[in-house]
């Protein structure tokens, strides 16, 4: 008889393509993912995934197994959500996913207060630049800076983040002040990769700095801060983080970089579950308490559109 856990590991590997990515989602080691795949293939006596230079890809048998396993998974998740929604207790695990910078500087500082209010609620904080699936229970709550692609989610705007252009005094002394009229010619840029939340800000920077050279791209906002702070170049960074970095100075610009909405996401079937609702409220209060840092008074306010929770 098939082991559902083996199928669950197979689905994660089929979706994410690598042992390491699947292991991160499942919170296990790469070897465990590989062992579970081997167990499933041995049970079925067929190869389900082929390993290629670009990652694991399903065989024909693997595609059929994936389709059927996803049907089973959807039914199990629907059952879990229905049962969870009837849980009136303020206890249990709540998984929260967000970017690395939001996790470290916005959510983590308030966890002690949350635990003081609700000692039986356990938080699993998952910093991830990739949008984890709330429908597939990879997380219960997501804090993001762009509209989600997933369906069946309730989205609420709870704040805004201002950005600025930063560099070190040493970098500016060596390279000179950037000239907007000359497209920042002769300067180096630190930008975000395509799958990260700060792409709007990076696109704005590369547009006004059309003659600069992109020296570094990264999916980590923290890495961009450190790279800029060590003289790596100009970077468009969140002000609540970069203003507190003593090695950086913010450059005056004719117009501010575009701000980013802070969006709180939850699956529609989970929003009234007491422990999840309690964490949603706590996150909202934490972001509101940091409003002055996240959106300084001298920053331009963004245009926003969101659906309330």
**What does the radius of gyration come to?**
22 Å
The second-level CATH architecture of the largest domain is: 3-Layer(aba) Sandwich
CATH topology of the largest domain: D-Maltodextrin-Binding Protein, domain 2
Name the CATH homologous superfamily of the largest domain: Periplasmic binding protein-like II
Overall strand count: 12
Largest sheet descriptor: 5 strands, mixed
CATH class of the largest domain: Alpha Beta
Terminus-to-terminus distance: 42 Å
How does the overall form come out from the CA principal axes?
globular
* Element order: H for helix, E for strand: HHHEEHEHHEEEEHEHEHEHEEHH
Portion in helices: 40-55%
Low-confidence segments, ≥5 residues, pLDDT <50?
301-309
Please state how the strands of the largest beta sheet are arranged side by side. Answer: 4-3-5-12-6
Proportion of residues in extended strands? 15-25%
Mean pLDDT figure: 87
Structural class: alpha/beta
Tally of individual domains: 3
Number of helices: 12
Protein name: DNA-binding transcriptional LysR family regulator
Domain HTH lysR-type: 2-59
GO molecular function: DNA binding
Keywords: DNA-binding, Transcription, Transcription regulation
